[in-house]
Design a protein that fits this description.
Layout lengths: L8 H11 L7 H6 L6 E5 L2 E4 L4 E4 L2 H4 L8 H13 L12 H14 L3 E7 L2 H18 L7 E5 L8 H6 L3 H4 L9 E4 L4 H4 L6 H19 L4 E6 L15 H12 L2 E5 L13 H5 L5 E4 L11 E6 H9 L14 H16 L2 H18 L7 E7 L2 E6 L15 H12 L2 E2 L1 E3 L2 E4 L7 H29 L1
Parallel strand pairs: 3-13, 5-6, 5-7, 7-8, 8-9
Antiparallel strand pairs: 1-2, 2-3, 4-10, 9-10, 11-12, 12-15, 14-15
The structure holds pyridoxal-5'-phosphate.
Pyridoxal-5'-phosphate binds next to helix 6.
InterPro entries: Aminotrans_3 (IPR005814), PyrdxlP-dep_Trfase (IPR015424), PyrdxlP-dep_Trfase_major (IPR015421), PyrdxlP-dep_Trfase_small (IPR015422)
Protein name: Aminotransferase class III-fold pyridoxal phosphate-dependent enzyme
Pfam families: Aminotran_3 (PF00202)
Length: 466
């Protein structure tokens, strides 16, 4: 393994505290811990920090580096496009070749009537575009009162004002509101915490879907624009819905004639073993947001895909859609996304996730299910989760505040060379689609070692005092 180039780590960490404000973080903790861990290099599924530690990146950056790190082909695509035409806008009836080529390529992967693609720069922006489109669509159809969007509690749809409004994260709603009106959130299909002892999987799926229908009836079906959700909730804790849930949700959307939207920012680009999560669950959304795996994170780019009937309706309105970003369809980002899709296709990474590494990860996680701290393991494709509990056979957590045990075990994993995330007391992972069997074995081994190492301290601190 190559070692990292040398940086002055102490100096960088000092400057980090002095000047760099990290996103989604406790800035006091950043300061008190002496600054961020400096990551300097990546290759395949491994990253290196400035102290030369190799860390297996079971988070694929942030759910996004599908093709792994260090792909020259991606750098070369960026170099070639930047040399030819780094940027040009798409506002004034102009467009660059890679922008159009990428739109067409994405349409091919989506299939069906999802044949139209609008570009943005981030997942949050893709979601903002999707909301504006849904509401504008109903305005164009002469039903402007249809502005309500029904999502799920604990859903994650980004960090812009629009994304937070659309999402169902209470911790985010508690800071910086008020939020955009007409966003409703109903129970999440989170069986580990929400399924009742007297319910089987089908009954739970029915109740969770029914929550959407109940909300729709409560608001008034004539006021609802869209039902929207992540096929599998990622940031909320890799919440894999019960069998039949998405079909029921689609049925409800069709029954009341409202739009169905899927946030594919994590599930898209092979993560669940299909190009998109909705394909795995066998539903047909009208609107789809995507980002992350679209470029494997090599450059920022996102997209909002729209069904034929949505675009036809908006075209019939015969007025410009006054929405878009300077960098919508950025030619260099588009060229890199095309190279990324080339790699995913050429290396068969979607099939490999479905038929090889996905099932292999499921087995590896299953090998941890007997651990006294593990309440449940679950996975779909290359998204996985481990629930940490204080009492086997229950969903009771350690401590008087959720998340302490999760953070402790996550840190123990990182110390042992494995990067994963803790969503409160759920350890989550989303490794690059190029991950190998050996690396998956290593994930399971390091998680077990970390569980073992943390258990005495967790038991000693007890349920109430931690
Ligand atoms: C990450 C994420 C977003 C936001 O994407 P950004 O690029 O961070 O703006 C939106 N939706 C889902 C499902 C995500 O996972």
């Amino acid at each position: 393994m190559r070692s990292a180039p040398s940086y002055d780590n102490a100096d960088l960490r000092r400057l980090d505290v002095a000047h760099h404000l990290p996103p989604q973080q406790d800035w006091a903790l950043q300061k008190n811990s002496g600054g961020s861990r400096i990551i300097v290099k990546g290759e395949d599924s491994t990253i290196w920090d400035a102290e030369g530690n190799a860390i297996l990146d079971a988070m694929a950056g942030l759910w996004c580096v599908q093709v792994g790190y260090g792909r020259r082909e991606m750098a070369e695509a960026a170099f070639a496009q930047m040399s030819e035409l780094p940027f040009y806008n798409s506002f004034f009836r102009t467009a660059a070749p890679p922008t159009i080529a990428l739109a067409s390529r994405i349409a091919g992967l989506l299939g069906g009537s999802l044949q139209h693609v609008f570009f943005n720069n981030s997942g949050s922006e893709a979601v903002d575009t999707l909301v504006r489109t849904a509401r504008y669509y109903w305005q164009a159809r002469g039903e402007p009162q249809r502005s309500v969007i029904i999502g799920r509690k604990n859903g994650y749809h980004g960090s812009t004002i629009g994304g937070v409004s659309m999402g169902g994260m209470v911790s985010m709603h508690n800071q910086g509101g008020p939020w955009v009106p007409d966003h409703e959130h109903v129970m999440q299909p989170y069986s580990f915490e929400e399924q009742r002892p007297d319910e089987d999987e089908d009954m739970f799926a029915e109740r969770a879907a029914r929550a959407i229908e109940d909300k729709l009836l409560e608001v008034g079906p004539e006021r609802v624009a869209m039902i929207f959700g992540e096929p599998v909730q990622g940031a909320g804790g890799v919440i894999i819905p019960p069998r039949g849930y998405w079909s029921r949700v689609e049925e409800i959307a069709r029954k009341y004639g409202v739009l169905l939207g899927c946030d594919e920012v994590i599930c898209g680009y092979g993560r669940l073993g299909e190009w998109f999560g909705f394909q795995h669950f066998g539903v047909k959304p009208d609107l789809v947001s995507m980002a992350k795996g679209l470029s494997s994170g090599y450059l920022p780019i996102s997209a909002t895909a729209m069904a034929d009937h949505v675009v036809e309706t908006i075209r019939e309105a015969n007025a410009p859609f006054v929405h878009g970003y300077t960098y919508s369809g950025h030619p260099t980002s588009a060229a890199v996304a095309l190279a990324n899709i080339d790699i995913i296709e050429r290396e068969g990474l979607v099939d490999r996730t479905k038929n090889d590494t996905g099932p292999y990860l499921a087995k590896a996680l299953q090998s941890l299910a007997d651990h006294p701290l593990v309440g449940e393991v679950r996975s779909l494709g290359l998204l996985g989760a481990i629930e940490i509990v204080s009492e086997k056979g229950t969903s009771s957590r350690f401590g008087n505040k959720p998340g302490l045990a999760g953070a402790m075990i996550r840190d123990a994993c990182i110390e042992r060379g494995l990067m994963l995330r803790a969503v409160k007391d759920t350890l989550v992972m989303s490794p690059p689609l190029v991950i190998t069997h050996d690396e998956i074995d290593r994930i399971a081994m390091i998680v077990r070692e970390s569980l073992d190492a943390c258990e005495p301290a967790l038991r000693e601190a007890g349920v109430t005092s931690l």
